[in-house]
Amino acid sequence: MMNTASTAMFVFFLIALTTECDSFDSHRMLYATTPSTRFMSRAAVNRSSLGSNNDASYPGIPFRGYPESSSPSMLATASLSTNLPSDDLSSTTTTKNKSVLSGPAQWHQQRRKQMIQKYGDKITSLERNASSQSIALPLLLLTNLSLLLLSIWSGSKLNILQTFALSVFPGSMFSLWQLQILHDCLHGSLFQKGQPKVWGRFNRKKLQDAVLFWGSMPSAYGYYTYLKFGHLTHHISVGDEKKATLEKLFDSSNKDFEDGDVLFVAHRMKLKGDIGPKFKIPSLKLRRKKQSNSDDEVKEIKMSISNSGFNQWKVGSPIRNSIAFASSFLFERFMIVTNDVIVALTGRNFYFPNKPLDFHKECTAYCRVAVLLRLLLWRLSGWKALLFLYLSETIWSIPPHPACAMFVTNHGSKVDSVTGECIPSSSTYAGRLYSMFTLGTNYHCEHHDFPTIPLDKLGMLRQIAPEFYKKGSDDNVFKIMKGAFSDPDFYACMDVGVTLSNGDDAGVTGNAASEVA
């Protein structure tokens, strides 16, 4: 019976792939470019020769732009937040455009401006020229091949305990590498910059979209949906009390999530706003009431796996809170695995009912390919192959795994011990091996300061501008986790806001180089 059912599913997905697999390429990302005055004229010439900036980034500064649903004012601020080197931010920024960015996003924008003013080409050259292509592309091939072979080995040769051990290491490391390399691809830092076509042949945008799509496999649920629809907007809306909410995440009619990190943050940090998703069902009455609209009455219910788990937390109880976090996180990820099958079968992601058709088409295209690969792995080597992938993708986020330390504290609300200001982003410096294991994901504050500097160059920012970052490389990851699970922060200073400097001669915004209280 099982063989018959799985064979039927296999045939269905083959048919589905031949008819709708091409829809993933319909998503249009903009390459917004606001070059520094140093090379403005060259960019202007290249702009006319290339035509639409939907198809390629300008030679010299090929930086990943904002989602299609971004407003014109948001696109005008491209150089101010996540993407491009601009030595004179004040000349391109209006009050209206600044308001598009959340307070923490402006905080990073101001830090970036201060660093460029002080260190100039030492930093902007990394933005313009540096890419991770020579390192990250071979590493992505190695990573995905390793995940594939290890999953087959787990399914066919190992027992459950051995599969678990293999997922802790090296499985979790490979999964983190997959995420970080695809993340570089999304920001336009994977392929060599300064060229309209990659290797003189391939359209940059189409190649990046293809790598993001196919590079997200093999996986149990994958990083594609979050990266494709939620990460670039995270750089715009991080810590925004109106946009970075569960209600907005699930109710929004925009193609892109307002802040995709809310999907993870809700399990471990305080958020403002209502929860989601919401569902409307007919109200069931046990006794009749004389109401003219009783037959048409609809009851709204709200559900949130992450919020339900977080509600079980108790201040000062890190073990209890860690268990609650692990339970809600693992269960929600299992529901995502299940939802991928539903999306593949129905062609619609019911968690996000208000999103446009293009969103559902692209989700469907990915889910059909990904679920087909999972079915093949199951048939080839058994269900433990999928268990290995599932554990590899989840376990690095959960204590006591060392990588959890950077994951649960990257956007807290730490207080600067010198200035008393709230710091919305932080990095974890636990030595060279830790940075290698996480492939630079631990340099999170650096990444939000300069999103297009590739993974292998983020560590250089502390060398170039040491006063902007915390000193030392001896962070105790277990102490960090204990603190995070003892007393949870608000997400990215959402409760108190951040201090923004006025004027170009301001000091280090937020003074992230200082110790935190």
From TrEMBL:
The keyword Lipid metabolism does not apply. It comes from the Eukaryota. One of its GO terms (molecular function) is sphingolipid delta-4 desaturase activity. Keywords: Signal. InterPro entries: FA_desaturase_dom (IPR005804). One of its GO terms (cellular component) is membrane. GO terms for biological process: ceramide biosynthetic process. It holds the Pfam family FA_desaturase. Residues 345-471 form the Fatty acid desaturase domain. Residues 1-23 form the signal peptide. PANTHER family: SPHINGOLIPID DELTA 4 DESATURASE/C-4 HYDROXYLASE PROTEIN DES2, SPHINGOLIPID DELTA(4)-DESATURASE DES1. This is Fatty acid desaturase domain-containing protein.
